[in-house]
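Hi R.,

Here's the chain you asked about this morning:
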Amino acid sequence: MRPDEWHLTEDVDAFLARAGDFLRSRPGAHVMQLTWAERVRKRGTGAFGGEAPVFGVLEGEGGVRAAFHRLPTRGVCPTPLTSEQAETLAARLAADLPSLSSVSAGHDTATAFAEAWRRCTGVPPRLRDLRLRLYRLGTLTPPDPLPAGRGRVLGERDLEEVMSWCGEFARAVGEVVTLDAGTWAESRFADKRYTLWETPDGTPVSVAGMNPLIGGQVQVDVVYTPAHLRGRGYAGATTAEVSRAALDAGARDVVLFADLSNPSSNALYQGLGYRTLTDWSVYDLA
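And here is the predicted structure, written out as tokens:
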């Protein structure tokens, strides 16, 4: 029997040809690989830093077993791995990509890879304080009652407003990013559709975004309400609007990440019908 083997490539089309069916078989667990492969496919390999992204597929007699992507500024992000698969991937990347900066994955996978990396390289991993939970929507349950106002989808004419909201969100979560007319198209925020919640007098109070439909799934990404407007139901209303829009667009699955240090947002998403898929961790490796 041929042993499982990792195949690495910088060709995103070759990666998707090999791993696409596997990734789409569990779109929730594979949301990061699906999302970033599609971004690289659309924008080109030079859009994310000086080095080319690297993709990998673990294949054996039974077909594809696992996959990963590595962006220059984001470290490695594998699909769920067994301890043995994490060991073989760490050994391969220690040889091919020794300057690997981090691993980001479901907690058990990230931990298994980080420990395998330590055994391969002698570098002790450091678990980041940021802890995330990946949720998948069950039955959407909008807030009742909704706050006064309405949702409004933002279009091309609203670009300045979109950039302003995304800039506020980025600062709130500690992302170091410049968003203006010159940088917007290459940012991770550019390929989303945004919805505002407006009060009856037209004042915008909350925003939520969603990624394009990929593999039958939509990721809700960017939910933000300014601090002085929180606690009034605006975030719940906006997230419900975006979640409904994702279902209307044909999504079989709708997922989102939440910061576990924020119990209010986690309770909000659970109240809307989102259920835990996995906890998510990041380890620094250098």
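One quick note: The first strand starts at residue 5 and ends at 9.

Cheers,
M.
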